[in-house]
């Protein structure tokens, strides 16, 4: 049988960097092959190269051979790719909103590949869209994210390709939709018998759908084998770290997550006042527990007046243009309490109102009715760490200016002289495991993980009375997300910071928070202790979120 | 779409009404006595009083406005205070003159925009030189380009005529657009001559807007050809030219159209200057004459016309945007 895809010694070089370095693999018809790696590992570049989208590009040199369904092709030249790209090989991309032309109806777009309206309708039915006639008349912005991704899959399958490339097809979707889309992809693969190149950073997703995986790092395949063997019993240290970094509902939340990382180890050793090597040993042995850190013994997490209290908070926004304005309720009577030294995670899907609560707690938004009380006795101000740290740091300021700005605006900072302030900044950077040399850098010169740490350092350079985090790890690679979670946990236990952590990820929520509050459609559904999350969640909505976490 | 169109037309009517009120107020109370302009400086008090009654100025303001509006809607634009002829007659030959120039200018701006947008994407030295020359041209005001054009193409080369709309005398055709009349009556020579007269003024007025349109179009195309949906189209096997036709132009056209609406407004005012330079007997020239003669009625009428054109054009732009982008009309 002819392989759906065979890649032989593929290398891709950009002007200064090597994106893909001598990669070879084969995908049989009907097989799902996972290409797993963190950002910058070259996985998406491979996806582009095998559909001939890197041909004749300035500053890109490509070597090797790509054989699609028995046809050998040169990934560096356009010759021969017509009739292959879009026919023998098609792609489902990550973000279905930006991947569909906003000015075309689904019918027109699908008609371009399916040929007739009858065929288009059949394909929409095939991807389980209930009202195909309505959807054919719709524009992308009128559909939900899940529907758009189904349309994208219909587009990709309509020409019955031999190879389907799925490039992070569920990363931009809510968890509950993710499971449905993955199921759909698997079913279609079996029906059409096409090979699937599944590109993902998410080991959970890879485990759920792939027969075979290749782990990619800096353009090289470091480990390759059947999914079960590779992800259960990884041999390569990099794969081991990736696997260890994956959070599940069974991860031990009393200890740091993932494998020890030198910089985080240093910060933690500093906080405990022991040697780095000792701390690393304790971590590896599993004897290092968060309860060993200081602040915990100053009383339970819920003692005393709450750090934040929201009582009967209502909020609505007006939508629609002139003449047909109407108000949409986003929060109904929300009561929420974050105790002193308590960490609470607010979990819900997009549009549930969780970010609005965070914005109200931060004072960025005023509630229509209801009370918001922040206990300001134990720290200075409320600080927020946003999801996109890059965007929250002013690009033309150095890290020193960014941190000084916050320090100078506090009572603590005002009482310090220049050298004391500088010392303060250095301590803050140490806490988030950044070297002091970062002080003179600007955000653009830092990596994504470093920027997120700078954002955290800025928030805690003077301990705030409340720390708010808006999905601070969801844009990060798994290993970086782990170290950010560990750092936040360190701050929480070491400084006793009260935290409100907004996320859609239950696995991350239970690691960082003492209590998980589930929110749906602007109303709080339930509040359960993290220690016993799986058993304690009883609401239908909460169970659905729980089931959607792939285990 | 119907609902959107109706709402746009509704707001158009409201804006036009507000515009007429504004123009009425400014022309009546904005200084300059219409009676003086009508009867001249040395008239007797009796003559002044008679003129006041004749012009309806002794009526209450609301009645005056109502008269003004009803007459306006019947196409009666009132009398020119300086020539005593109906303003409508004065405009009958001048409005087509300006419209012809304006239409050609808009078309030329769009052509320049399209050609330059292509030139913008040229790599290397040629693209750089084109960009440099055009930037310099676009940053020069219309009257400077007009004067330089005259010096070169009339003074030095003698290729193009210097003034007026034709070398043969007014067209006898119906539309008042000389090029069109020439073509309709089969007089090709006449049409060609009228076209030659249009080249310099239209170029002077269209270069600036054309370059601006080109920049916005080139940026829009660049963004749209790098977008996620362009990637999808490529992965579905579309060629670059299919991609440009099906997705690129349409997605890039929105900002270009918005800019065009604004540019047409500015073009109307630059035409006033250009008409002066080329002795183009249109609204612009008439406006200048009317201002000098303190002919408030004519000034008000022309202002109203130009304002109305601007408002209508921008309503059309809004409707065009809605046709291009479903998110505008369906949100």
From TrEMBL, chain A:
Gene3D superfamilies the record matches: P-loop containing nucleotide triphosphate hydrolases
Keywords: ATP-binding, Nucleotide-binding, Transport
Annotated ABC transporter domain residues: 5-243, 308-546
Family matches, as PROSITE patterns: ABC_TRANSPORTER_1, ABC_TRANSPORTER_2
Nucleotide-binding recorded as keyword: yes
Transmembrane segments: none
MF GO annotations: ATP binding
Pfam families (alphabetical): ABC_tran
Record flagged with keyword Cell wall biogenesis/degradation: no
Domain of life, per lineage: Bacteria
Family the UniProt entry places it in: Belongs to the ABC transporter superfamily.
Full protein name: ABC transporter ATP-binding protein
Phylogenetic placement of the source organism: Bacteria, Bacillati, Actinomycetota, Actinomycetes, Kineosporiales
TrEMBL record, chain B:
Subcellular location(s) per record: Cell membrane
Topology versus the membrane: Multi-pass membrane protein
Protein name stated in the entry: ABC transporter permease
Xref: Gene3D superfamilies: MetI-like
Major location category of this protein: membrane
Keyword terms of this UniProt record: Cell membrane, Membrane, Transmembrane, Transmembrane helix, Transport
Spans through the membrane: 12-30, 101-120, 132-154, 174-192, 256-278, 298-324
SUPFAM superfamilies, alphabetized: MetI-like
Domain of life: Bacteria
InterPro entries referenced in this protein's UniProt entry, alphabetically: BPD_transp_1_N (IPR045621), MetI-like (IPR000515), MetI-like_sf (IPR035906)
Domain ABC transmembrane type-1: 95-317
Annotated family: Belongs to the binding-protein-dependent transport system permease family.
